[in-house]
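Figure caption, in words: inputs first, then the predicted bound structure.
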Amino acid sequence: MAILPILSLPDPRLRLVSKPVMTFDVPLRRLLDDMLETMYDAPGIGLAAIQVGVEQRILTIDLARKEEEEKKPIFVINPEIIWVSPEMSPYEEGCLSIPDFYEEVERPSRVKVRFQDETGKPVELEADGLLATALQHEIDHLNGVLFIDHISRLKRERIIKKFVKAAKREG
Ligand code: NI
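Bound structure (nickel (II) ion present):
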């Protein structure tokens, strides 16, 4: 396993629409393991493949945040949101690609997601709470959407400007 570098704002690859996974093979399994290790190391509760520069519809999610919590990773491949609840819930979100920035986002409280697991087997999952938010946030990444796209334009422009400036400073 390896820890992969995480892309951050304003990297244009974060705006790409990722491609479906067609083959469930050993390289995919290796990528999933690397993504998981990268996510735990960050630490974060969700990671999309494009955040490590891989343009494929792949997510890893694990809500266990603390070291002592039992790890329960989910591998989510080619996900599709097939139902959203009419009720919405606010959550303070962050993103490994936008370090140290948190903002409240409102999304449907519950979602039903259809995806494939690491073996290609179809799975249907109904989620609420933090898992519902994490799934929606990560699926957004596969479509080139970031959580800052759901906040006010003023706040979004301010944070983008900050990251553009920082990237210039680092050369
Ligand atoms: Ni994110």
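The beta strands are 46-48, 58-61, 74-84, 88-95, 98-108, 111-116, 122-127.
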